[in-house]
Design brief:
By secondary structure, the protein is of the alpha/beta class. It has two domains: about 180 residues, Rossmann fold, CATH 3.40.50.170; about 100 residues, Methionyl-tRNA Fmet Formyltransferase, Chain A, domain 2, CATH 3.10.25. The chain has eight helices and 15 strands. β12 and β13 form a beta hairpin.
Length: about 300
């Protein structure tokens, strides 16, 4: 098939590569504009753009896809279908209707669960036993189109937002290739979504990572995993930011303690009181220092029992 591919972050690169490998003709790659990064504010290409250029594909980066000039570019590009993977802009109804097979989206959840910008991380934060990929026929709503193909992916006990991101990126790539084969063959049966049983998976922000120690330890442990690697979960220690990268839940009975109080320090872990249970911190990173396991941290930094985090 002839395909216009729309995508921006790392999550979309695998699908682009899989479509090329499957023999599809990518007539145009549409990605978000390059953004400045680093101290020199040098413009850095999006991961999808970098991948597209490595295959000598034509890349288009409109500031606003919904403007007439951008729509004209899409209209004038030959394609049977538009494949959209984490593109990052709203797509107009006129573009949705431009090509014979419309717009097909690779979404990182088992729709109708977790519509929205960050379905992967929220599945971890909410303690879901599984997530997955849905190939969807896009409509004017936000992740509300008919479902064409789905695949579940179980979550491991120590699943992080980053590890699930990698799994779903790979699974989305293979499922998209399968969906296009069946779409062309006319063997897909679209299914309506119905109402979502979960809250909208809103975009992640840095302030979401600030740990509220009054919450149960089991919720905080999931938050730490879900926000790993970005934006990361953090607290305050002696006026400095302390990122928590890995922790375990301890449900042991305890005397009444202040939330955020360090109740025990061993040679390789720090135990902190939560609203319910204790959080055993295994890996952390103090502001200005490298990420390290707690044993290494404690060899260079003394933590007092009774100290308060946050």
């Amino acid at each position: 098939m002839k395909i216009i591919f729309m995508g921006t972050p790392d999550f979309a690169v695998g699908t682009l590569e899989a479509l090329i490998e499957a023999g599809h003709e990518i007539t145009l790659v549409v990605s978000q504009p390059d953004k400045p990064k680093g101290r020199g504010h040098e413009l850095v290409p999006t991961p999808v753009k970098a991948a597209a250029l490595s295959h000598n594909l034509q890349v288009y980066q409109p500031v606003k896809l919904r403007e007439e000039a951008a729509e004209e570019v899409i209209r004038n590009t030959e394609a049977d279908v538009i494949v959209v993977v984490a593109f990052g802009q709203l797509i107009s109804q006129s573009i949705l209707n431009m090509k014979s097979y419309g717009c097909i989206n690779v979404h990182g959840s088992l729709l109708p669960k977790y519509r929205g910008a960050a379905p992967i991380q929220w599945a971890v934060i909410d303690g879901e036993p599984e997530s997955g990929i849905t190939i969807m026929q896009m409509d004017a709503g936000l992740d509300t189109g008919d479902m064409l193909l789905k695949a579940a992916v179980p979550l491991e006990p120590k699943e992080t937002g980053g590890s699930l991101f990698e799994k779903l990126s790979a699974r989305g790539a293979s499922l998209c290739v399968e969906a296009l084969e069946k779409l062309e063959a006319g063997t897909l049966i679209p299914q309506k979504q119905g109402e979502s049983p979960t809250a909208y998976a809103r975009m992640l922000t840095k302030d979401m990572g600030e740990i509220d120690w009054s919450r149960p330890a089991i919720e905080l442990e999931r938050l730490i995993r879900g926000l790993n690697p970005w934006p990361s979960a953090y607290t305050q220690l002696s006026g400095k930011t302390l990122k928590i990268w890995d922790a375990d839940v301890c449900e042991e009975e305890q005397a009444k303690r202040a939330c955020g109080e360090i109740v025990r320090v061993t040679k390789d872990a720090v135990y902190v009181a939560c609203g319910q249970g204790l959080l055993k911190i295994n890996e952390l990173q103090l502001q200005g220092k490298k990420r390290m396991d707690t044993a290494a941290f404690l060899r260079g930094y003394h933590l007092e029992k009774g100290s308060i985090l946050g």
